[in-house]
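ok trying again, last paste got cut off:
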Amino acid sequence: MRIAVLEDDEHLGQLMQLWMEAAGHNAHLFTTGQEFMGAVKRDTYDLFMLDWMLPDTSGDKVLEWIREHIGWQVPVLFVTQNDSQEDIVKALEKGADDYMVKPVQPMEMLARLTALGRRVKQEVQEETVIDRSPYQLDLNTHTFSCRGEVIPLTQKEFDLALFMFQNVGRILSRAHILDSVWGRNPEINTRTVDIHISRLRKKLELSAENGWKLSGIYNHGYRLERAYSGADKSSSAEPVSAVTSSGRE
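nice, full thing came through this time. structure:
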């Protein structure tokens, strides 16, 4: 998972970052609420980890901001010295998904992260064939087809298509896509994402005719979503992230 960590104790934050990265996660550390919220406005993450006591604000206020501006799709784990039952209940009522009291034990922290990630992605993880009519992605054979006809894709194109179809309706930053599909490679930049998105859009013929659109979100990234014609707009659609944008590319 791509995790944003808000922890004002930089030493502890770096230690937790090492634990998470050793377990295969991609952790980004922020030491103030302002720094954290600024990054979250520009970028996207799979999970948020929050401290309660911060130099410029409090964790519960940051949680309120997340639920108001980002939405409820991304889980939040509190990791704090604050062990008051009243504050724990307050955090959970305001939208926290889990709560850990310091000192942090690495195995417990990683187990809680895994449980939260599984809760969010359980449906996707259980699928071996992802059916998003008229498209199908077969995870066993690594093939992508449209109305039964296989569309030749490179491995990276397939991985990118899989990631986008696993996150339908969600705005994904270029950096998030890059980390999730290509991994952390300093030799690859976000321009790679733009090139592959353009190729994928053409190869898959993502258009209103096929019921899908892959849109560039100005100054942010991309979103794959259902394309509905007039009569269909009232029908149920895939959930859309609460992140707002000022325009489209």
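cool. The radius of gyration is 19 Å. The longest strand covers residues 212-217.
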